[in-house]
Amino acid sequence: MLNNIYQSLINRKSQSKKSFAVLVDPDKVNDNSVEDLIQLSLDAKVDYFLVGGSLVISNYLDECVQLIKRNCNIPVILFPGSPSQVSKYADALLYLSLISGRNPELLIGQHVVSAPFVKKSGLEIMSTGYMVIDGGAPTTVSYISNASPLPADKNEIAMCTAMAGEMLGMKLIYMDAGSGAKNAISETMIEKVTACIEVPLIVGGGITTAEKAYLNCKAGADVIVVGNAIEKDASLIKEIASAIHSVAVKVS
Question: What is the H or E stretch that residue 95 is in?
Fold first, then answer.
């Protein structure tokens, strides 16, 4: 399988370039709202679209991905809440293993069931160590996963979990406070985690302002994911993208 998307993430990280991914939940959009998101994202030079959600009860996943692909060249990465959330029309898939929890189904069980289907999809598969961090409010991902989030103030646990994920071969680490989180992940935790891993670090959940996105990037996040805040106010895309892309690039 091609590694175009992953290589782009690696290249951007090596140049200290920060990336912005707009999260699109197929259950919460329609053709008109997706078209608006696409235009706003093109204008703001968004780097990636993540498509998926914890449930996805509609049948709009394929149509949503195809609509994005027809109207722009921004890569589409699937962010699946379950093995059924696979669309062959996307560019890549985050193959999530919930390394912060102890639910065997989400560590490896569902992957065993979905592996043949995922492999046949032809998608670029990126193994991802998924870490749910307590965002101060119950979230859908915590309920669906039946796993407790990592405490927001336990930086050492987050560090060791991320290190373990990397040493187990995960290509990416994704720290998520969850959709609708009251509190975003602290800069201190991001700094501690990014200092002990070499793979790209994705951070999402509870990021509602450009300032927070900027601070998370300064702390070491390589990719910032925003979904819920944009659902409420799509005009935030330009402001957040500008903040993320303004983080100074390291001169080699």
Answer: strand 92-98
What are the pLDDT digits (tens) for 131-178?
999 999 877 777 777 778 999 999 999 999 999 999 999 999 999 998
CATH assignment of the domain containing 127: 3.20.20.390
Query: Per-residue pLDDT tens for 60-94?
Result: 999 999 999 999 999 999 999 877 789 999 999 99
| pTM, rounded to two decimals | 0.95
Strand partners, 202: 174, 223
DSSP state of 26: G
With respect to residue 251, please indicate whether it lies within any of the assigned structural domains: no
Domains of the chain: total: 1
CB 250 within 8 A of CB 218: no
Q: Which amino acid is at 122?
A: G
List the domain range (segments joined by +) for residue 26. 4-245
Q: Answer yes or no: are the C-beta atoms of 250 and 219 closer than 8 Å.
A: no
Please give the single-letter amino acid code of residue 93: L
